[in-house]
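It is time I had a proper look at our fold encoding. Can you supply me with one protein entry, sequence and fold together? It will help me judge whether the discrete encoding reads sensibly. Leave the record below and I will have a look:
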Amino acid sequence: MTRVISGVVLALAALAAILFLPVLALRIVACAIAAFGAHEYGRIAGTPRGLSEALLVIAVVAVCWLTAWPLDARSRVLLLLLALGWVALEVLFLGRTIQQAGASVVAPIYIGLPLGMLIAIQILGGWRATLLLLATIVVSDSAQYYSGRMFGRRPLAPVISPKKTIEGAIGGLAFGTAFMTVAGAVVFPSVRPASFVMLGLSVVALGICGDLFESRLKRQAGVKDSSSLIPGHGGVLDRIDALLFAAPAFYLYFTS
């Protein structure tokens, strides 16, 4: 029951934010989510507390804020300089290895960039585009679960996530893509349905990869959830893992 109540509250809060908040407020909300996600990532990745953790959170939030608007050449250069400067600071002055610094630099790309792109999607396509993306991921996740329960026989990635099956992934791909195609044609009638088929396949496939990626991070860290922030659901990363991989593909579609 706790999981259901938490899920309903989260869904209603997300819907209200997308429909009613101005862009500036949405950017602030996205940056707050990015900060929580960065903190969880730092815990999983073994980032030392103190300056290293603070730099990780600041970098993730900065990238999220910058990418909330479609990126121009200047912003891309700024992001590159931020990453290079951060690696130099970590390796030269904080005594971390290249591998440790690299794990930290992944965080803004993994968390900050997609969440910023989600706000850019809202700016470019409106609330309908944002809800189309989120609803497709929800439909795909639900289809994966029920397809796996009913037909699952062969494990998809037994070392990473033993409960996920190939049959569940196929169900998620089929229903998620079908939803994207039908709902996309209704929301954006001027766009050819064939393009939504390709977009749906890309979004759903990347969402599955995002789920497995976060599962791999947790398994390597020896933890079940990224945190206990959300009752019955785990942490922020546990809720947005598929979105973090799917949002860039959807963003590229609207900017191409």
Observations:
- Residues 33 and 40 are 11 Å apart (CA to CA).
- The two ends are 43 Å apart (CA to CA).
- The chain has one domain: 23-255.
- The first strand starts at residue 155 and ends at 157.
